[in-house]
Amino acid sequence: MAERREVLHRVEPIWAPDARVLVLGTMPSPASREAGVPYAHPHNRFWPVLAALFGEKDPKDGPGRRALAQRHHVALWDVVGSCTIEGASDASIRDVVPNDIAAFVEGTDIAHVALTGSTALRLYERDLAERVGLPYRGFPSTSPANARWRLPELVEAYRPVADWATGSSNGQ
């Protein structure tokens, strides 16, 4: 069992001036904190999903992944700025201090928020949705712990993110 400890969010958000959609996770995993890029665990399917949505290959490295998101108008950050957590277990999160998402999106072209996983969605609705004031939607977790969703199913579930990022009305 991993030790429960206070963790501060130290992974820089991925952002570009023309971002149209903000994808929010809960809190970076230990692998993401070490790599300095969101969803860095080798079995997390976020980057393969994002790459598939835009007809690209997963670049597999931090700079390439940042460029992929930026090229397609996708910003990434996390709901939680600090918390007490065991390893990477969202279920163990306590003592949440949220990131200032409202300030992050202010004055940007971001028009939609996508939440990866049920904990991110729950915490966003509890702490941030009203202040941020943008349309939002929850999506299945891309974590390897969510094994019942296969990659093709995740790609289809995340299709609205691509629609929002490209300005298509299909993502409503």
UniProtKB/TrEMBL annotation:
MF terms (GO), sorted A to Z: DNA-deoxyinosine glycosylase activity
Alphabetical UniProt keywords: Glycosidase, Hydrolase
Record CDD domains: UDG-F6_HDG
Protein EC: 3.2.2.15
Keyword Hydrolase (UniProt): yes
SMART domains referenced in this protein's UniProt entry, alphabetically: UDG (SM00986), UreE_C (SM00987)
Pfam families according to UniProt: UDG
Domain Uracil-DNA glycosylase-like: 12-159
Top-rank EC class of the record's enzyme: hydrolase
NCBIfam families: hypoxanDNAglyco
Protein name: DNA-deoxyinosine glycosylase
Species name: Kribbibacterium absianum
